[in-house]
Amino acid sequence: MNTLDHGRRLSVLLLVVATLLLVPSVATARFTATRSPTLAVGTDRMETPAAVTGTYRCALPVFTEGIDVTITSFADGGPAGAVYDYRLTGPQVDKTASSAGHSVSMTSGGILNDRKATHWTLTIQSRLGSWTGTPYTRTITCPAKWSSSGQL
């Protein structure tokens, strides 16, 4: 080995040592800000629909019975862009609808009149992607022997 090789090796060794000493100090540099951040990040949740308004009408023709439900509005404090799943269930009936709006009309269709009071369940559930909220549920009882109507 000649002097030139020894010089090269010594230079490479000094360069490696300098790199190992200086790089960690650069990586531990600290940044300070004199202003507060302007972006606030938080989470939201799907809410239960509330203050549901609308009407229902229990129909009792001679041999059949049914119900018509019209939802005109409700409050939803959840995130924007939700879709609402509406469901009306009763004896031999399971009607569903989906809408981005806060109104819908649903009709059960005629079922055989058994001359007993009929219990119907109305459900509204908000959905955004794969997230769902707690459903709003209302039970409506139609009398046994006459038609009736009311407010939700």
Q: What is the compact description of this entry?
A:
With 152 residues, the protein is of the alpha+beta class.
Description:
- There is one protein chain.
- The strands form two sheets. Strands 1, 2, 5, 6 and 10 form a five-stranded antiparallel β-sheet that branches. Strands 3, 4, 7, 8 and 9 form a five-stranded antiparallel β-sheet that branches.
- The longest helix has 25 residues, at 3-27.
- The protein starts with a helix and ends with a strand.
- The protein is rod-shaped and about 115 Å long.
- With 152 residues, the protein is of the alpha+beta class.
- 16% of the residues lie in helices and 44% in strands.
- The protein has one helix at 3-27, and strands at 50-59, 64-75, 83-90, 93-99, 104-107, 111-112, 118-128, 131-132, 136-142, 148-151.
Secondary structure elements and pairings:
Elements (H helix, E strand, L loop, with lengths): L2 H25 L22 E10 L4 E12 L7 E8 L2 E7 L4 E4 L3 E2 L5 E11 L2 E2 L3 E7 L5 E4 L1
Antiparallel strand pairs: 1-2, 1-10, 2-5, 2-6, 3-4, 3-7, 7-8, 7-9
What structural keywords apply?
single chain, 152 residues, 5-stranded antiparallel beta sheet, 1 helix, 44% strand
Total count of strands: 10
Structural class label: alpha+beta
Helix content: 10-25%
How would you sum up the global shape?
rod-shaped
Distance linking N and C termini? 98 Å
Strand content: 35-45%
**Mean pLDDT metric:** 87
Number of helices: 1
Spans where pLDDT lies below 50 across 5 or more residues: none
Topology pattern, helix = H, strand = E: HEEEEEEEEEE
Tell me about the largest β-sheet.
5 strands, antiparallel
- For this structure, the quaternary state is single chain
What is Rg?
Answer: 34 Å
